[in-house]
Design the sequence.
């Protein structure tokens, strides 16, 4: 079996640096049966959804869209 050349090893991409954000979905205290998302970045103030969602899945999907934008902006600013 042929061995990989050193040039093919150099062509491999390094893994992307892990972003500093985390997302969680929480039930709303003020509206039973509704959920919101919260995105945290270390010690910074969290970003919280302005809308409520009927299910955890809906809240997570909406929060994930915002999270992806935040990650993109973070990567560009690095």
Sequence:
């Amino acid at each position: 079996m042929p061995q990989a050349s050193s040039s093919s090893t150099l062509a491999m991409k390094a893994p992307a640096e892990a972003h500093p954000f985390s997302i969680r979905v929480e039930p709303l205290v003020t509206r039973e049966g509704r959920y919101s998302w919260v995105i945290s970045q270390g010690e910074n103030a969290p970003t919280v959804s302005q809308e409520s969602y009927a299910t955890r899945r809906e809240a997570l999907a909406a929060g994930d869209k915002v999270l992806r934008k935040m990650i993109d902006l973070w990567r560009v600013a690095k």
Observations:
- The longest helix spans residues 56-77.
- Residues 17-77 form one domain.
- The helical segments are 6-10, 56-77.
